[in-house]
Write a structure and sequence with these properties.
Elements lengths: L6 H8 L3 H9 L6 E3 L2 E3 L2 H10 L23 H8 L1
Antiparallel strand pairs: 1-2
Amino acid sequence: MEMLMSVEEVGELCGLSRRAVYRAIERGELTASRICHRLRIEPVEVEAWIRREQVQVVRQFDPPPPRSRLAAACGLRRLLDEEA
């Protein structure tokens, strides 16, 4: 059986405050057990919590290249220039 972790130990492991870990437990994100009036967390629960909270980076499309300011060979500007 793996050793149970305290709220403080989970916070240290994850780089979070005790309050942040307590809030995660209150929200139901992290499963904990109350043993002798103390909250204890199984390491597998911490690992599962971290996996569930992973974010997926959505790659944004590259912006289109700027439009060319050159006149098209058969564009309106060319036609207007020829009439003048």
